[in-house]
Amino acid sequence: AFLNGDLDEEIYMTLPPGYTPKEGTVLPPNLVCKLKKSLYGLKQASRQWFLKFSHTLLNLGFQNSHADHTLFIKNVDGRYVAVNHYVDDIIIASNTDEEVEKLKSDLQHAFKLRDLGTLKYFLGLEIARSSKGISVCQRKYTLELLDETGLLACKPYNIPMDPSIKLKQDSDEPVLEDITPYRRLVGKMMYLTITRP
């Protein structure tokens, strides 16, 4: 996705490791090249991709939602289409299959896309359709999180810490040597709050 973004400014980079010039060509030291398109790792890459994809949807008659900048909506004569995207993951929802196929065709002309079929997973969310409607859960994400932290076989507690731990007042010992795994875990648990049982 990031490789599709157009650059608004001149950006130069050193030649990547392993680059070999044409046979018989000697390159001067410290040679740089000018980028014509976005590259992975470029600070502007994700923004440029978002702008290009958004511009394409706007040109197709979609309107950007005021509630979510990644949501685009089109409603013409009762034919409703919604597109939500996160980086290079795209969801298309519509009340007519024809509109979905038309949009996919239009996007295929602009970008190289891979259709993964009916939506089942999106950003850790499990999506299931039934005659009663659409349900969203994070069971798989939760099990992976428990497995990753070694808590898959744990028993539930009413308090958020081991009750056998004796707390000391004014301890000079750091609570955690490295807080990064703790922060990562808290962030993942906060992501779990977007769905409820």
From TrEMBL:
Q: Where is the Reverse transcriptase Ty1/copia-type domain?
A: 1-161
What InterPro entries does this protein map onto? DNA/RNA_pol_sf, RVT_2
What protein name is recorded for this chain?
A: Retrovirus-related Pol polyprotein from transposon TNT 1-94
Record the organism: Noccaea caerulescens (Alpine penny-cress)
